[in-house]
């Protein structure tokens, strides 16, 4: 049986909490220097921590983020944690005439031995 390190599981959760708090620099600090992000639905790849956080900043804006569930496993060969998060995103309308939009995000994130997120794959789905 493999062990799952609680701190390694907290790192991706903290990343999304920082995004929800608009603490962009703190979120970026949790990503590895050689970070790579993937968006399988569009086939896009985003290289670099700053570019990934900027992408999420543009996409999520001032959204309210709630982590609904987390699951983790430990790869004994690579000594990395694989963490899956189920995230609800509520994007508030800019005015009374704009409705609040809800989105669901599934994030698969790899946390390395230094407790940094090395890569992530994100799936976005509207809930409305």
Descriptive report:
With 128 residues, the protein is of the alpha+beta class. It has a single domain, classed as Nuclear Transport Factor 2, Chain: A. It has a six-stranded mixed beta sheet. Strand 3 and strand 4 form a beta hairpin. The radius of gyration is 15 Å and the shape is globular.
Summarize the structure.
The protein is 26% helix and 45% strand.
Can you lay out the helices and strands and say which pair or pack?
Layout: H1 6-20, H2 24-29, E1 31-39, E2 44-47, H3 49-60, E3 64-75, E4 80-91, E5 101-111, E6 117-126
Parallel strand pairs: 1-6
Antiparallel strand pairs: 1-2, 3-4, 4-5, 5-6
Classify the helix fraction into a percent range: 25-40%
Mean pLDDT score: 88
Secondary structure tally, helices:
3
Q: Which sheet architecture does the biggest sheet show?
A: 6 strands, mixed
**What's the CATH first level?**
Alpha Beta
| Adjacency order of strands in the biggest sheet | 2-1-6-5-4-3
Strand % is over 45%
Name the overall outline.
globular
Annotated CATH architecture: Roll
Beta-strand segment tally: 6
Q: What structural class should be given to the helix and strand makeup?
A: alpha+beta
The CATH topology is Nuclear Transport Factor 2, Chain: A
Q: What is the H/E string? A: HHEEHEEEE
Distance between the termini: 40 Å
